[in-house]
Amino acid sequence: MQLLGTLPPTYAELSTEEMEARIRTIKSRLGNRLFLPAHHYQKDEVVQFADATGDSLQLARLAEQMSEAEYIVFCGVHFMAETADMLTRDDQLVVLPDLRAGCSMADMADIDQTEIAWEELTDQFGEDIIPITYVNSTAAIKAFVGRHGGATVTSSNAHDIVQWALDSGKRILFLPDQHLGRNTAFDLGIPLEAMAVWDPLREQLNIDGAIEDVQVILWKGHCSVHEKFNVNQIKTFREREPERRIIVHPECAFDVVQEADEAGSTSYIIQQIEASAPGTKWAIGTEMNLVNRLAATHPELDIVSLNPYMCPCLTMNRIDLPHLLWALESLETEPVNVIKVDAETTKWSKQALERMLGR
Questions:
Q1: Of 113, 116, 180, which Cα lies nearest the Cα of 152?
Q2: What are the tens digits of pLDDT across the range 235-258?
Q3: How far apart are CA 103 and CA 224, in angstroms?
Q4: In terms of CATH architecture, what is 9-103+315-341?
Q5: Do 310 and 288 contact (CB within 8 A), yes or no?
Q6: Which parts of the chain have pLDDT scores under 50?
Q7: 226-305 is classed in which CATH architecture?
Q8: What is the Cβ-side half-sphere exposure of residue 87, based on CA atoms within 13 angstroms?
Q9: Any idea where the domains of the chain sit in the sequence?
Q10: Tell me, what's the pLDDT at 146?
């Protein structure tokens, strides 16, 4: 089994038509032995072959249900494939078509930094902290959270899980996205002055209010895509087209979420668009591939990106036709880019996931 590899140059020389034909042939031959999930942010050239599209945890849980599948070729990023591997059986093979498809947000919290932060914070606050991690994190971070009695969250259920943690009477350490943590906590009534930010590079806690009032400790991480949206973009639309509604993802900065008409998870954004009356105008603050796909599938609506100069998620876009074809053609000979999480990490990560799913 080849755990990683570099795309052979012959694949880059193939025409789009030939690659698509070969992928269709493989999918037809393997049938239920193959499950090919694709995240909402993937390119259309990849999404066209997906057996299911969705967000990261939704797709991993679907993979778990595919009992006949021998191969799960996950078109997303590294942490998503890790979660799929942890939820599926040991005899099922999870492959990421391009190992360079990572997540800058997940990479902003590594396990060594987290262990250092935990030691510093528990020295300062005692054991009175519950760690919560966004599913957009590495398996090692999920396992850390599981070992310390915490849970994972998605952008869809963050309010419920953070409320559960707050109800325990303990402080929260929210990894790795400070914006989702801040927006969620604020929605639940936690004032900004009761939030602090842990800077893992400087190994220090930044506080605006009194330290004894801190209820939520936010990890200084962010999504490189959603940080590209700002209040000035919203104000420009307000001035030019006051009838255009603004909807953004809660990974956007606090002031952007407060200024927008609506904010919600990827699933929420899709649902709002699908429920809109014909002629409704939207400016959407999320990843460009999804915005373009929504605009193409809903010609009855006027849909644009909140940031007209927005790029797609660069790491997500590493999955392309050549890498997908290569991964598929390697399955029955020498699989490439296999994602395998060790048993101990899987055990504790699943604890964090199960605490979330049980709420």
A1: 180
A2: 999 999 999 999 999 999 999 999
A3: 9
A4: 3-Layer(aba) Sandwich (3.40)
A5: yes
A6: 1-2
A7: 3-Layer(aba) Sandwich (3.40)
A8: 23
A9: 9-103+315-341, 106-223, 226-305
A10: 97
